[in-house]
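cache lookup: miss for this entity combination. No prior model stored, computing from scratch. Input as submitted by user K.M.:
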Amino acid sequence: MTQSSNINPNQLDPQGRLRHFLALQHLPSAILQKLLEKADQFLSNDFQIVKNKSLLADKIVVPLFLEPSTRTRASFQIAAHNLGAHVLNINPAASSMTKGEDALDTIRTLAAMGPQIFVLRHAQEGICAQVVEALGEKIAVINAGEGCSEHPTQALLDMLTIRRYKGDDFTSLSVAFIGDIMHSRVAHSDIWALKALGVKDIRVSGPEALVPGHLTSLGVIVEPDVDKALSGVDVVVALRIQKERMYESHIPNNQHYFQQYGLTVQRLSKAKPKAIVMHPGPMNRGVEIASDVADGVQSVILKQVTCGVAARMAVLAMIAVQ
Ligand code: NCD
């Protein structure tokens, strides 16, 4: 995560409206605010989804997930369905990619059939921008998680969750991320979003090898001591150790990691009594988070999942209906 990434796709159309949703970095905060307002309208006060089956009627949405996913994929499918779109589900393991076709050729092929929106998850950073370039402006592209770089719809749902619990003025909030920051596209997108919403106190903590020191250049506080990082915060985000993105092991074993960095009731007591606990999922209980915290009164982890449907409805609606 750098101040000026070379992966800087233009996600706005010439009128400055959202055309693709690829990254929180460089997204104007007015658009983020608009997306949050829209997402909020798709969620009732008691966290029920408010459907609108006519908004995307006749549109075809193609989720293409080339990395494992449970909640993001399901959430996009449900969001598109809630808006009346047709969802074309592709199973990569049963597609011609198993015959050697590369992802871009598969995408070009599907695009030639005339869908309006692609939702793409891929391990390669920059792939969404490449797809935008390959397809021209005919089809909108939504990043559903790209390498370690960005996961913009997760950031939107995280901001919606925070807003629901802490109100719409983010400026005096303190937010701590604990765990594998380096490989977390969620943390990266969240940090851009929090900064765009005016949060000044953003802290990161975890094993030294997994916490990029250069985050300080973005005004993020790198605090190696987890208890200090948690002290007095309003929001705690626990993150999974992303072993699938590591060439070498940065942690000796799960038990040791839990002792050093796991979010336990005792550690959580350092945060404000009304602090909320978030986790993007999938959780590894007993590694980055204790079960009694994951299931405790401060946990909003399942509410994040519900917010995810509303957030993705907002993105689909804003892109498809200008
Ligand atoms: C995250 C992801 O895929 O980046 N999960 C998600 O989309 N909710 C985080 C993770 O895999 O740990």
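stored under new cache key. The chain has eleven helices and nine strands.
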